[in-house]
Amino acid sequence: MKKKSDLLTSIEFFTIIVGSMMGIKILTLPRDVSSCAYEDGWISILIASIYPIYLLTLGIYISKKEPNHNILYLSKKHFGNILANILNFFFSITLLFYVFNLLVTVSYILNNYLSYFLPQSKIIILIGIVLLYTVLKDFKLISRLNLYNFFIVILLLLIPITVFKEGSILNIQPVFKSNFNSLIRGAYLALPSYFGFEIFFLIYPYVNKKEQIKKNSFISILFIILCYIWIQFTCLYYLGSDVVNKLNWPLISITETFIVPLIQDFRSIFIFLWINVILKTISNYYFFGTIVLESILIKFNRKNICLLIFPIIIFIATSFTNIADINELTYKLEPIFILYNIIYITSISIVIKKS
């Protein structure tokens, strides 16, 4: 990402940040927060947004002090090559973990709803090949992919409006009845839904209008918060917290009752479009994860690294035949990843301030 043609417009920067945060979690978020905070799940979503807002605060400071260098360069500058490479390697792991994680989840959804005839392992391999082809392209393609998918997201977020014909206001009551501990537990489960903002620290030097970084970053976080609250509200309004808590993917479930003229199976179309959005998110993690590894493995270019780690990703993904196993592993690792990113990025900020 060194060519002038790689410079990002404001809208491309905005959509990459949004596209990196919004993925598979939006399908399960209503269940996660409702399991603890019930009708007050939206409050837990707000509390959890402290995480990306904190990272944004650090990001604004770092981008003002070092507008032309990303976190990979800064870590080597202030920590030395050896320590920086160790830190950056773990940073890449936090991104690449979600590549095989989301591969497993997407393949499971497809296997259950659309591709009944294909084994899950074959779905993983087919999706993996598409991802590999995508990430072998240049940075500009990734940015455009995020831009195009953003409009699909807008369309998909408007679809749940139809639930207002069938839902009940009683399903979102009572409000403000959850205690503080329940809200915090809900926020803890909502935290991983904001993962992906970390990519900000890799791309801000490549924004062509740096004076708009702060505004566009804040708007991207606000957009994600509002989207999450909107989906939480519509799922509760239509299904109620008792039903939402029992569903794996509440957002998919509410589409099963949609009646669209001339379309017999609207749910399948909805899932297909969301899968496209999620594949874009996986592409982001794969692409930027290899950007980080490229800074460590200086004898290999990014495309070679993509090819080298591809069989490893596929092997790990196909090893998880049970969705419960990958969910359990994810539940254990996500807090560690979030804590690591907070410590890592905060350390960079402190060192920059002292220097």
Automatic annotation (TrEMBL):
GO cellular component: a single term: membrane
Domain of life: Bacteria
GO biological process, one term: spore germination
Pfam families: Spore_permease
Source organism (scientific name): Clostridium cochlearium
PANTHER family assigned to the protein according to its UniProt record, in alphabetical order: SPORE GERMINATION PROTEIN A2
Annotated compartments: Membrane
Transmembrane residue ranges: 7-29, 41-62, 82-110, 116-135, 147-164, 184-206, 218-239, 269-293, 305-324, 336-352
Coiled coil ranges: none
Record key words, sorted: Germination, Membrane, Transmembrane, Transmembrane helix, Transport
Protein's membrane topology: Multi-pass membrane protein
Protein name: Endospore germination permease
